[in-house]
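Hi R.,

Here's the chain you asked about this morning:
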Amino acid sequence: MDLPGMSVWYWIIPLLTGVIGGIVGFLMGRRNRGLETHQQVRSLTESCQKAKEELEACRKQLAAANSEAVLEEIPYDYKAARTVFGETVQKDDLKIIEGIGPKIESLFHNYDIKTWRSLAETSVAKCQEVLDSGGDRYKIHDPSSWPLQARMAHENKWKELSRWQDEHKRGKL
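And the predicted structure, written out as tokens:
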């Protein structure tokens, strides 16, 4: 083999073949990856839609359960409340609920939620809406337990309420 006598084409042709093969392989791989990504997106979209439908069904079921669970009027037992909390608890004082202070209580009063019973029958989403109406400074509060605590207060379950508040500092579930 005489290297100086070899034509330039002997070097260019394999080089061009390699470059063209690399480009074609890259484009085919990219196309297949695009198809896989499209299929994954479609699958995830379908899963997301199913999850949204299940969530909506659960919300409807919860709303139906909450509407059926209307509380009856129970006489307020101030003696039991005083025994457990060591101080006089005013009837329907929302501040007895862990996480509710005077300003948040006034927000609930603006929404005509003035009793333990009405707070117990309020959804967590509605409680969050009441908090949001107060502005950004109320974003740190978590109202998820407030209806539960209000139900205990309405039903004169003072020992359970006190124990629950001791176990769940800051009123978080």
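DSSP finds seven helices and no strands in the chain.

Let me know if you need anything else.
M.
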